[in-house]
Amino acid sequence: MSNRPSGSSWLRGTTIRKGGNGSSASTRTATPQVQSTSTTIFGGGVKDPSGRTSEYFSMDDQCPVCKSDRYLNPKLRLLVSACYHKMCESCIDRLFTLGPAPCPICNRTLRKLAFTPQTFEDLTVEKEVAVRRRIARDFNKRAEDFPDLRTYNDYLEEVEDITFNLINDIDVAETEARVARYKQENAALIELNIQREEQYAQYLREQEEAERQEREQRAAELRRLEEEEREEREKGRQELIDRLETSTKDAAKLVARSRAQAQKRADARTQSSAFGGAAKAFRGRTNQGAVVADEPHVPLADAWYAYDDKYAVRDTYFDPLSEDVRRDKDKVFRAGGYRVEEAWERALRFAVASLDLAPLQGLHSTAVAVEPPVISADGDVIMAST
Amino acid sequence: MDAVERANAEHQKQWAKDQKIGEGTYAVVYRGREVSTGRKVAIKKIKVGQFKDGLDMSAIREVKYLRELKHQNVIELLDVFSSKTNLNLVLEFLDTDLELVIKDRSLVFLPADIKAWIAMTFRGLEFCHRNWILHRDLKPNNLLISANGQLKLADFGLARDFADPGYKMTHQVITRWYRPPELLFGARYYSTAVDIWSVGCIFAELMLRTPYLPGESDMDQVRTTFRALGTPTEEDWPGHKKLPDYFDAGQYPKTQLRDLFTAATTECLNLLAKCLIYDPYKRISAKEALFHPYFTAMPYPSHPSKLPKPAKKGSTLPLEEFDGNVDFEGAGPGVRANPPNKLKRKLSAEELGSRPLARRLDFSQHA
């Protein structure tokens, strides 16, 4: 018998499944179910959005190696080799358990672990998907990584070339070398783009989570409001009946008053819930609830530079002290960023600014020492003296 | 009791000290309050006793400059008094700092938030620079955030005023990751541009949520910087090869900021690039930065009250924010380039004798 392990167990009426429950009786009439348990060993395959691998499955499946088909073996599962040839699990076990062995169809050396589940009926599609996925992982540059559209398009063209070659087995060795070279040259950028993608995915997840929470909160809030409203209406009605019973006032007036009260309560409620909604939008921010509008930036809020037109710094002064600095033989002043003009400006500004200063008084008393001497409108103090 | 002591006692009475919230090499920080109003303050007690020759340099610097600076975006020094042999600085109490905000992974920054923080930083810095004061230790850790969201420059322990021509300044300032290349190359004459570089690094860090140029040593910092921004040529930065500590850090190609900051707008990258220009002459000034189109482009900067803040953990807040020296978590390089003693001028014996005692220093007088 060609498919030794599962064949013999089939004869005994049991099936051997990796990690599965071996006692599930198989009847030939029952619809065979592919309950893939092999993904733990055989990786790969194309995942659907939920993260599961859906395998291709057909009633006409037949293993091209041992010719066993679904009629003979209802649990038949065909896997795809690295050279894109199908084989059943038992053949794989038989041929490759003892280590790498040649493919019975094309003679390429294969390993047991390199078999992947089949997703598409057409194996060329399977190959194309795998190649494209592999290439896309490394060639992950984005439009913003390029100076212009032209270079980006060239890059895309090159990627397409490489992909086409690999799919159709054209110049495989040379193409692989190209891929390796690219990977080496762009290692940092590839890594960066992978991180970017992860970040984006993370961001999406977080946003989704936040939205879900907000929806839940809103629903809870709504339920609470409804409950409250119902209770209040009930209470109001009861009150009205009581009052109509006991009071001697005009019935129409009493009814009108209780209506007005109910309206007021309802208004207050809608307001409070609107307020809560706004606060939620500022989750994690300080000052929750109070919404302050952002203000445009004002560069300078005081008149400090109003002095600027009261003096002008000249290009040069007679200043023996700064002689060395201005000559700057060793260029150290220039390189360090020191400017003698700033020293001049400082001296001039102090001279000019002090013209407007009222003489400081009362500095010797203890109380004044705590307060700054001269304060402009917005709280900037004008420096007293140096 | 002489007049000075009486005045000092008067000041001391106004403030009540509560529990300790942090300790560093040269200061202990307490939470405190103003007796009359109950307003929360932070009291920074400087240990004077352990230094033989008077007060610590950074304490002097802090008092000297904060006394004169009063601005919405600069931490306010409310009072100074001495107790026994200690000097006490009464500072505005601030909830948190930008480093904690950046590190809190649960917070999401909008572009408008970053814009607001950077605008406030530039505002505070512009105010310092217009008063000719270089901060020289800008880093997220030193940008404190008040309860209403205002960002304030703090820790003026390394600040100094603009040097007169020909006077050397030390190049061993600014925490390494935020240190500009001219200081890394040992420039002794520099200007306001050094602070701008630090702001550029903070700007980048806000977008990346991780330090932009984390060098492992001073040499490595140069290499890290060049790797990120390319090796400068003589044309990019005239004269840099003549700087005292210049060394050849290797050739790195120039890269586009766009490659790293993929989500940033053009204006944003333009401002960032201008903050990180090698040549200090060409680097943007704080005033020019405030007029940069980045700030006027949409979206508007977030209102301070809407900026994200980390959730409070327990009652004690990390108070390393008050000084780089109060470093109990050991995160970041946290270097103080110079141990405080080295910065100090050695006093001769007779000078020492003629000097008044530390506690007699009278800070109620304007110089």
TrEMBL record, chain A:
It is found in: Nucleus. Its main location: nucleus. PROSITE patterns: ZF_RING_1, ZF_RING_2. SUPFAM superfamilies: RING/U-box. GO terms for molecular function: cyclin-dependent protein serine/threonine kinase activator activity; kinase activity; zinc ion binding. SMART domains: RING (SM00184). This is RNA polymerase II transcription factor B subunit 3. Residues 1-47, 224-243 are annotated as: Disordered. PANTHER family: CDK-ACTIVATING KINASE ASSEMBLY FACTOR MAT1 (PTHR12683). GO terms for cellular component: transcription factor TFIIK complex. Residues 1-12, 23-41 have a biased composition (Polar residues). Pfam families: MAT1, zf-C3HC4_5.
TrEMBL record, chain B:
GO terms for molecular function: ATP binding; cyclin-dependent protein serine/threonine kinase activity; RNA polymerase II CTD heptapeptide repeat kinase activity. InterPro entries: CDK, CDK7, Kinase-like_dom_sf, Prot_kinase_dom, Protein_kinase_ATP_BS, Ser/Thr_kinase_AS. Residues 15-295 form the Protein kinase domain. It comes from the Eukaryota. Keywords: ATP-binding, Kinase, Nucleotide-binding, Phosphoprotein, Serine/threonine-protein kinase, Transferase. ATP binds at residues 21-29, 44-45. It is an enzyme of class 2 (transferase). Pfam families: Pkinase. Residues 302-351 are annotated as: Disordered. Coiled coil: none annotated. GO terms for cellular component: cytoplasm; transcription factor TFIIK complex. GO terms for biological process: positive regulation of transcription elongation by RNA polymerase II. The keyword Transferase applies. The active site is at residue 137. The keyword Metal-binding does not apply. Its EC number is 2.7.11.23. PANTHER family: CELL DIVISION PROTEIN KINASE, CYCLIN-DEPENDENT KINASE 7. Belongs to the protein kinase superfamily. CMGC Ser/Thr protein kinase family. CDC2/CDKX subfamily. This is [RNA-polymerase]-subunit kinase. It comes from Phanerochaete sordida. The lineage of its organism: Eukaryota, Fungi, Dikarya, Basidiomycota, Agaricomycotina.
